[in-house]
Amino acid sequence: MTVVPVSARTAMSSKEWRILALLVISGFLNYFDRANLSAGATNMQRDLGFTNYQLGLLLSAFFWTYAACQLLGVSGWLVDRFSVGWILACGFFLWSGATAITGAAHAFAMVFALRLLLGAGESIAYPAYSRIFANHYAEHHRGLANALVDAGTKAGPALGTLLGGLLIAHFGWRAFFVALGGASLIWLVPWLLWMPRGRGAAVPEEAGVAPSIFDVLRQRSALFTALGLFCANYFWFFLLTWLPPYLEKERHFSKTKMAYVGSLAYLLIAISSVVCGHLSDYWIARGYTANRVRRTFAGLGLAFSALAMPVAALRNETAALALLLLACVSFGLYSSNNYAITQTLAGPRAAGKWTSFQNGFGNLAGVVAPWFTGWIVERTGEFCLAFVAAAVVVLCGAACYVFGVGKIQPIDWEAGKL
């Protein structure tokens, strides 16, 4: 066990808390904006005369540019090359502006183009978060910092769907998009005042040339963190897109009961993430290595998420829901430490590029999980095998973090090896 100096175990400063609070809000708005089209889909389809095929294209358009900008290294290069605070501000302006203008759209091509802009703008977010945390937050603060951002992203789609449905019913989808995008831009005012500048005092940046994306891709740990995130995201997107239909179709829940249970599942992930992020930081501050703590949380969290496997096969409703909710709590163990692992491995000079590749690849699960689940349900007429598939994939994710990533410690970029 490595002893951490007392001087390194200080609490976060008021400046760090202000920046973190703004990042959490940006993560919430990031995912709120992703869910807004789903909330207004049927209204928009009716008003603008979109076919189901066109609606499907609109719902998937976000991921086209979101994943591409990260996989191609554009987002990571921007946040590593220029001032990360300004780059995040530009991305935020782009995605909020695209949301607001959608309220004035009258044609499919315009809505489609705006969804592509939304994806491009939001592709900046996670690489920027990692760059900021790696450069301005000490190791024993990153678990909680990442966990709070993660909690914001989990609350975003839950509240986005709920509030979106209620507000659209009263004011219409156009007013909802304009108000949401316009109000979100207010976030830029405090951000431009308080955003991090310079290299950061908490974690001084190393001298030398920044690693390229090819240097990152040569690292075995980069490939396994990307694959691990894909497996974890498969489980998350499975819950996000198919849990409500499962509860209604197979458990025969009313819309109200489904909303309560579904929201509780997402909320438990958020709460667990915050609690576990704090615990992981606590143990690291007490002297345990980041390698031991982060790997334990990630591996056990994903492994116990597989408790969801028998949910659809259990006839007893109480037992099935108990396993489902326990799996969600377990997932929070992983999600609180996911990007903290990346930030430790990559260091300040490569955090943006690494996260860009990892998040771009991982979000391909947003395409695969909903489609494959739908294919299984269409072929079998039930959700049992869909839950089995999600559990098997998430177990593969646990194996990636436990056996594939390797030792979680800063990479020696000069030597090009761990």
How many helical elements? 18
* CATH T-level topology: Growth Hormone, Chain: A
Compressed to H and E, one letter per element, the order equals: HHHHHHHHHHHHHHHHHH
Average pLDDT = 88
Q: Which class best fits the helix and strand makeup?
A: mainly alpha
CATH class: Mainly Alpha
- Major β-sheet annotation: none
CATH H-level superfamily title:
MFS general substrate transporter like domains
Strand content: under 5%
Specify the helix fraction band.
over 70%
Describe the fold and architecture.
- The chain is mainly alpha-helical.
- The chain contains 18 helices and no strands.
- The chain has helices spanning 14-48, 52-71, 74-81, 84-102, 108-122, 125-136, 139-171, 173-184, 188-194, 213-217, 220-249, 255-285, 290-305, 317-335, 338-346, 351-362, 365-380, 384-404.
- Residues 1-8 and 201-205 have low confidence and may be disordered.
Ordered list of secondary-structure elements with their pairings:
Elements: H1 14-48, H2 52-71, H3 74-81, H4 84-102, H5 108-122, H6 125-136, H7 139-171, H8 173-184, H9 188-194, H10 213-217, H11 220-249, H12 255-285, H13 290-305, H14 317-335, H15 338-346, H16 351-362, H17 365-380, H18 384-404
Task: Provide key terms for this protein.
0% strand, mainly alpha, Growth Hormone, Chain: A, 18 helices, 418 residues, single chain
Question: Would you summarize the structure shown here?
Answer:
With 418 residues, the chain is an all-alpha fold. 77% of the residues lie in helices and 0% in strands. The protein has helices at 14-48, 52-71, 74-81, 84-102, 108-122, 125-136, 139-171, 173-184, 188-194, 213-217, 220-249, 255-285, 290-305, 317-335, 338-346, 351-362, 365-380, 384-404.
